[in-house]
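Posted in: Structural Biology > Protein-Ligand Complexes

Title: Requesting predicted complex, flavin-adenine dinucleotide in pocket

I'd be grateful if someone could produce the 3D structure tokens for the following input. Sequence and ligand are given below.
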Amino acid sequence: MARTPIVFMLNGSERASFADPGQNLLEFLRRGVGDLSPKYGCGQGTCGACTVTIDGETQLSCLTLAESVAGKHVQTAAGLAAGATLHPLQEAFMENFAAQCGYCTPGMLISAKALLDRNPTPTREDVVEAISGNICRCTGYEPIIEAILAAAKGRARA
Amino acid sequence: MIQSVETHATLAEAQRAMGSDAIFMAGGTLVMRDVNAGVAATRIVRSSDPVLADIRLSGDGVTIGAGVTMATIAAHRDLAFLAPVARSVGGPQIRNMGTVGGNLFAPHPYGDFAVALLALGARVNVAGQIGAPRPLADVLRERGRVGIVASVHVPRPQAPGDFGFLKVSRIKPKGVSVLSVAAHLPRQGGRIRGARVAFGAMGPMPLQATAVERVLDGQALDAPTIARAAQVAVEGLDPPTDALATAWYRREVAGVHLKRLLERMVRG
Ligand SMILES: Cc1cc2nc3c(=O)[nH]c(=O)nc-3n(C[C@H](O)[C@H](O)[C@H](O)COP(=O)(O)OP(=O)(O)OC[C@H]3O[C@@H](n4cnc5c(N)ncnc54)[C@H](O)[C@@H]3O)c2cc1C
Ligand code: FES
Ligand code: FES
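-- Reply #1 --
Done. Output follows.
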């Protein structure tokens, strides 16, 4: 079977790898490219652990054909921290105990980042809506909502 | 196992490339589930035809490309009447991916957007088809055999209050349908003329509630009419039993939710 070479931008840097026919973006990122931050929860679109942004929009990498990202910008949670400096959302998740097992966290962070990029001063309802496609089985969501609101407030102050 | 993914520049080429070993893929939210499970066809056919992404307003309606996503509809300033419907589909990621065309072919319990289109009397343009666009009800009935949908033509409600949509789910804000119901009730001199009501998750595909339409036609939308409409809500429908609800439950509550929708439309 012919493998397809794919050149795309991952967290701001150009990357290239081969995709198998029908391979989903999640597997491609994890196995082909070596970015382990998007997680495999269900492979069916229901959990959101695999959420990435493609050209700024949140999408589910498990339901995206790897080859459809050729020439596009993909963002994963691995690109949030700048060296040893955490992204304000990551800081806020830490401060607010918004991660327990942490499995949902990369997807939550990406959904939260996409929200704040579009709407820097979200209401609580906006936050709930933005993470409604991400399941967390540990925290009960409240700490996550608080963390995202706190990160937004921090930004508004800066 | 998928052996190839083909992207065709035009819908005509994509149409020619289809065959029993191929599946057409739009947003992929349903197709990729099958691909991941290893139960999909061997070829994936896609198209980058710009027609698929086009939204064109005409006098009394709008033509929406089959590849337009739920998120695009929810954000489009001229499609406010469809925004609540688009927002009811899945979570944010699904809405960024899932398309109008895919929703017409989505099996139970999906197809909420198609329910609204059915109530609005939408017509479907099939790629390579000569002649007038086909009524959506026909396309829904023949789902396996219609070919590739290029766009849907949707009549716009004359007054915003003429159209209403309600989705009942167990998980909020995101969850699949226990049922969904849409009503388009154009009024002339206070009387309903040309009522169209459709239910989702109440049969193998979105279905028109013709008994309800007959009760509503020619009447004012008042309490006695609404009560009679609710009584006949499930006539002709054949709800399935699934993990969310039994057929019995769906039959019991369909009239209640229809009543709530109609009462909301009275309040405006
Ligand atoms: C977690 C999750 C939640 C969901 N929630 C909802 C929901 O609440 N409500 C709801 O209605 N749906 C829901 N869905 C189902 C689905 O996402 C939507 O119905 C969506 O609109 C399907 O569009 P798509 O472009 O992703 O379809 P695809 O997966 O690309 O295709 C689906 C089917 O349609 C066919 N198809 C697609 N485009 C065309 C075309 N132009 N012409 C002919 N055939 C075509 C494909 O061949 C395939 O058979 C959900 C799905 C998931 C995974
Ligand atoms: S792994 Fe993609 S949504 Fe669960
Ligand atoms: S922290 Fe465990 S699933 Fe969210």
